[in-house]
Design goal:
single chain; alpha/beta; UDP-N-acetylmuramoyl-L-alanine:D-glutamate ligase; Protein-Tyrosine Phosphatase, Chain A; 8-stranded mixed β-sheet; 6-stranded mixed β-sheet; 17 strands; globular
């Protein structure tokens, strides 16, 4: 393996390793869930020390922000591989399957690889559990799996997305040579802070001494926090709109065509098979991050146009304005906060002429539900309120009550079962389509979990 793990006393060795993906998944889910937080890096530091500090075996591009992290991570990954670098990518949460969180060279771990990664670190989780006031969480355990797997591969670079926040997020045991900050807005206020600036202070914790910081355009109060942190640790801060940016976006069949100003030069006629201005912003963030990472003697020379063009044309981002069906069209989008919902709604208006557009909405109970509903209200002709299978999901009856205040009773149907809700919405999209120049469509949104379960029900894109 690429890292040296500490030898364990015999009494700490797990007698029976996981034999199947389901067993590994069950063992991980038996730990503290991602929503139960005890802000400390003590457990993860003890864990990776036992694993031989695998995160020190490769350079890291570290991402935080409120929305766009996973799409940007996937773009960075694709660009790096275009330059013949072997990549590891850690993202969260997953859409359909837990193994999506850990990828090597753009491919998520197979079931066998995931089980192997779990069994490699499982004995050490019990040592940490016995030595710390609180046991390792699910998220901390999966982070350790990813970091160890990347060292074993070995990878040339790891692209690592935070789970929540930044400073005390478990991924922050890794020191990013490049820190990427996507737009910062309100989300997880109970954990991160009650204002964008407070949230930015926590997220800025991923900025390490000497790093290059690539930030999306931010509000003045957020940018001030990032400037302070960069100055404090001697990092270089590069900001969208000042140092790089989107020059032109043009709608195209299956996505959009972009002209981007990077750190090294301009790149024209880039086809991106994703919809929305927010994805164009993610694209230029990814481009700047890769330009900054590659650096070196050619730091002032643009990257190869053809390589960049080919890489962007290959980008995918499941569950992000993803078309999975036609007749009627069904679109999946994991928007789960007002900022994300606003971006999704704007992208739908820019790229499509759906009439009517029927929303299927299922949310988690700890989110800004009113804000999400209000962001979608002007854009949805009808809504079908539902719920996903998770205990954290807001019950459909309660969500229906809240949605009635926003949409009114005439535009709303409550269907607790997600599969039935999709069928009801599809029937409405077909029966109420009257414009010969457009057609009805269904948008399934409100939560990554809702989108993931819908994606399974629908069998993925067809």
């Amino acid at each position: 393996m690429g890292q040296v793990m500490t030898e364990l006393p015999e009494e700490h060795v797990v007698a029976r390793p996981a034999q199947t993906f389901a067993e590994a998944e069950e063992a991980l889910l038996s730990r503290w869930p991602e929503t139960r937080l005890e802000p400390s890096l003590d457990r993860i530091r003890a864990f990776v020390e036992l694993l031989g500090d695998p995160q020190a075996a490769y350079p890291v591009i570290h991402l935080t922000g409120t929305n766009g992290k996973t799409s940007t991570s996937r773009m960075i990954d694709t660009l790096l591989r275009a330059f013949d670098l072997r990549t590891g990518r850690f993202t969260s949460p997953h859409v359909e399957k837990m193994s999506e969180r850990i990828s090597i060279d753009g491919e998520q771990l197979s079931d066998e690889q995931f089980v192997e990664a779990f069994n490699d670190v499982a004995p050490y989780t019990h040592v940490v559990d016995a030595d710390q006031p609180h046991p390792l969480s699910f998220f901390e355990s999966v982070v350790g799996m990813a970091l160890a797997k990347f060292a074993e591969a070995p990878v040339d670079v790891a692209v690592i997305e935070v789970g929540m926040g930044g400073g005390w997020d478990a991924t922050n045991v890794a020191d990013g040579a490049v820190a990427v900050i996507t737009p910062i807005a309100m989300d997880h206020a109970a954990y991160l802070g009650s204002s964008p600036a407070a949230i930015a202070r926590e997220k800025a914790g991923i900025i390490k001494p000497g790093a290059t910081v690539v930030s999306a355009s931010q509000t003045p109060d957020v940018l001030e926090v990032l400037v302070e942190r960069a100055d404090e640790v001697g990092a270089t801060l590069l900001v969208e709109g000042r140092d790089f940016g989107v020059l032109v976006t043009t709608a195209a069949v299956g996505g959009q065509v972009l002209s981007l100003k990077g750190l090294r030069g301009e790149y024209d006629d880039l086809f991106l098979p994703l919809y929305g201005a927010h994805q164009a912003q993610n694209a230029v963030l990814a481009l700047a991050a890769v330009e900054a990472f590659l650096g070196g003697a050619d730091a002032d020379t643009p990257l190869g146009d053809e390589l960049v063009r080919a890489a962007f044309a290959e980008v995918t981002s499941p569950g992000r304005l993803e078309l999975v069906r036609r007749s009627p069209t069904i679109v999946l989008d994991a928007a789960h906060n007002p900022h994300g919902a606003t971006a999704t709604a704007a992208a739908l208006e820019e790229a499509f002429t759906f009439s009517p557009l029927i929303g299927v909405i299922g949310v988690m109970g700890d989110k800004d539900v009113e804000g999400v509903l209000a962001a979608f209200e002007p854009h949805l002709d009808r809504v079908v309120i539902t719920q996903n299978s998770q205990p954290r999901a807001m019950r459909a009856a309660r969500l229906g009550e809240m949605a009635t205040e926003v949409f009114g009773e005439d535009r709303l149907t409550v269907v607790p079962d997600l599969a039935t809700a999709i069928d009801v919405a599809a029937a409405l999209a077909e029966s109420e389509s009257t414009d010969s120049l457009s057609s009805g469509a269904v948008l399934i949104t409100g939560s990554v979990v809702t989108v993931g379960e819908a994606r399974v029900l629908l069998g993925g894109p067809k």
